[in-house]
């Protein structure tokens, strides 16, 4: 499997599931996982994008340790992709708008809890490695992005 193929697999899972699990590590080295709404952006291959409020714990954790992991799984759990990478925290209105154009409609609960999109930062996970699983077929493939 090549980079392009695994990115296509991730994109298809995001289209179906709309969410993924995002894992960080805090300053005390404790793991934290949460559901997030990710996006892949055209013209920005090799990265996963999401938004977070600048005062959120996940932003604090990423500032302390930018190494993260994403788990993308199809609703039937027959396709799973685990992505490892490093997060860049992006505070750029143009990129924020680009990400919100893709994920904004899927953030209904998020908008109820929070309000002002100017307080959002973009979390850009630069993919270093991805593992693709087809558990029902016993298939596991690893792709390095480095």
Question: Could you characterize what this model shows?
Answer:
Helix content is 27%, strand content 40%. It has four helices and seven strands. The longest helix has 15 residues, at 3-17. It has one domain (3-144): Electron Transport, Fmn-binding Protein, Chain A (Pnp Oxidase, Chain A, Roll). The protein is globular and about 45 Å long. The chain is of the alpha+beta class and 146 residues long.
Q: How many beta strands in the DSSP annotation?
A: 7
- Return the structural class: alpha+beta
CATH class: Mainly Beta
CATH-defined superfamily:
Electron Transport, Fmn-binding Protein, Chain A
CATH architecture: Roll
Total separate domains: 1
- Average pLDDT score: 92
The number of helical runs is 4
Query: Which consecutive residue ranges, at least 5 long each, have pLDDT under 50?
Result: none
Radius of gyration: 15 Å
Report the portion of residues in β strands.
Answer: 35-45%
The description of the largest β-sheet is: 7 strands, antiparallel
Shape: globular
Helix content: 25-40%
Distance between the termini: 15 Å
